[in-house]
Amino acid sequence: MRKLLFAIAIAAAATLPTVASAGTVKPYNHSGYWTNYAGIADDGGYVCGMTAYSPTDTTRQVHVKYIPKDKVLLVQLFKNSWRIPDGTDVAIDLGFDKDLWASLDAAKGYTAQNAKLGGFVEFPIRPDSVSDFLGLFGEADEMWVRFPNGNETPWITKMVGSRDAAKSLTACMAAAPQATQPFGKAPASQRGNGVSL
Length: 197
Hints:
The chain is of the alpha+beta class. It has one domain: Invasion associated locus B (IalB) protein (Immunoglobulin-like), CATH 2.60.40.1880. It is built from 3 helices and 10 strands; from the N terminus they run αββββββββαββα. Strands 1-2-3-4-5-8-7-6-9-10 form a 10-stranded antiparallel sheet, covered by helices on one side. The protein is globular, with a radius of gyration of 19 Å. It starts with a helix and ends in a 22-residue tail after the last helix.
C-alpha cells in the first residue's frame, strides 16, 4: 500500500505545474465536475487545491485547498454577490449525500480582495478528520452546505469525478514543498558573534 501511495505521489508530482513566481497557480487535472490545481498563490505560498465546475452556475465556487506552510486543509465557499465583513462568524452544516458530517458555529466570512470573487466563507478540516473527509468526499454523489443563520439557500455540489480529484489532491499534498526556516531552536547565546564569512 505504501508503494502504491508513493507511486501516486510521484505521478502527481510529475504532472504538477512548474512554478517560480507568485500568482502562478495552474490546473493540472480535470475529473468530472472537479479540477485540481497547484502552484504559488498571490501571497507567495504554495497551494494544492480542487474546485467544482458547474456549467449552469458561474456565481458560486467550492474549493478544497491544502496550504503546506500552515499544514491545513480548508474548505472555501465563494459567491460573487456576497459582501461579508472580514472575520464574521458564519454557522454552517456540511454533509455528504443524506448524512450530516459537521456543524460549525464559527466558520469565518470575508470579502475577497478580487472583486469578481465577491465574498467567501472558509473553515479548516481538523487534522484528525482529513482522511475521513477526503474518503467521504471521494465516495459521495453530492456534497451539501446549509447556512442555518442566514437566508442563503443550501448549496448542493455534484460529486462526479470527486474520487479521482481527492486522490490527486492527496498526492499533491504529499508532494508539496514544505516550509523551511534558516534558524533552529538553540538559544542565541550558544551561537558565535561577529563571525565573518
